[in-house]
């Protein structure tokens, strides 16, 4: 089809272009008939320009009156000043007085109107993703995403990093989550796995002497379905040789500075604060605290203050080895919130679901009175000490929990987050970055007795904690588990506004230490060789000390776009049940394809998650 190509986009014509003859191509966003005059809002990725067609232009008028929304058209005409100007859009001072009008393609009535404040359900939008992606807000997200790729790549190219692609078809190796598997046709009965991350490859590249590696890569994890997780997601993956933790931080903080400056025009303050895992757990009850929260105190451990009280709940909790009593203070009055009986009951139900018998509280009413179910158990001295340590005043309430330390801390952390979310006590104008360091190397599950890597199995234990591996050999059961769990790792997360946006570590680069870690997580010698023989072998031939980090690209872009969910910064996301509604994947395949692979399908209907 012949048509005139555009001279301009729909987002660029201004009053200074008046009297120019132009051609625009685009989609009909809206058509209005105002007393015989036809107006069309012509849309492309760059903006919207108004097209005016008068009834006197008879032939054009006839064609134009037939177009519907989303028709693709080409118009030629003269740029003229608009009578009623629209100050909200860059092209709002002009319109096109049409001389040529051509329909390039017609459009059926779309299942939803393409507008920024879309009313359609998310499923419908995902089914018709190509229409959804016509919306300016989604296009803007993808453009920001594209800018971030560019900034990141340039940043690391300027610093001697090499971008290396690692395989998408790889060996299935345990890395924490479940692998997506791909059957091999050539090697019948064998499978590739899609990478959960390029972890082992990037370490091997360090052994090869590549020294500074970067890749913006796809990772695949067949995890149980959780809101706002995608089975495939993107990471900025980095690895460096001859580095310590601080070198990794120094090589990544300026990248965020550049991104924030260019995308948001915001000057980030560096260095980012650093807090240890133990510190954030004890103060915020979370390993990814949101430092934008206001109106809620840090967690205070009051075990020492209450330890001699004859209150059976506290007494029992503190009699346990790891028992504590702790609390968090909520300044309700200064945030204009009324903490009613109903609110307290609601929070009590909430903590009961977390496994507590109840929620203690001391409420300092605005009129100076004090309300607390604990009052009869607390003597005056203890009451005064609690008030003092929390620096509590009228209009504030202290919520108190007692029990096993980690559970109390994380539950108080959950209460902080819940109150902050419920009452909007989060300063959304801020970007709070934080490195959380010194994570435990292992996670010990008391119930199952299982020991797993807290980050992944390639993370280096802190050198000064290595002796615990030998000590643990003489122990068993809970004692062994607890000792191993106390080993700290050279491992770190980057947290932004309460989201874990990166994880990384200094790696093990010695075969003997790697084997110790494999042993602890229960890999037999044979399994170690089968699954990671290549890595252990590589470590024999001069592996340099190395470390790295991987950033969650989708989450970073979502935060830059001011979005809570990552779906809308991904062009073609999957639903919570890992389906693509547009192309209907996953789908059945032809029998021939299965035969080629030598695969027969038996569907287990029970427990086949
Ligand atoms: N590969 C790790 C992950 O995906 C990140 C890292 O340690 O660099 O979590």
Description:
- This protein has 609 residues and is an alpha+beta fold.
- The chain folds into four domains: 15-105, Beta Barrel (OB fold (Dihydrolipoamide Acetyltransferase, E2P)), CATH 2.40.50.140; 123-270 and 548-609, BirA Bifunctional Protein, domain 2 (2-Layer Sandwich); 293-422, 2-Layer Sandwich (Gyrase A, domain 2); 440-488 and 510-543, no CATH class.
- Helices cover 30% and strands 23% of the residues.
- It is built from 19 helices and 22 strands.
- The strands form five sheets. The chain has an eight-stranded mixed sheet with strand order 6-9-10-22-21-20-17-11, sandwiched between helices. It has a five-stranded mixed barrel with strand order 1-2-3-5-4.
- β18 (442-444) and β19 (451-453) form a beta hairpin.
- The structure holds aspartic acid.
- Residues 197, 199, 503-505, 548-550 line the site of aspartic acid.
- The site of aspartic acid (ASP) has 8 residues, from β21 and β22.
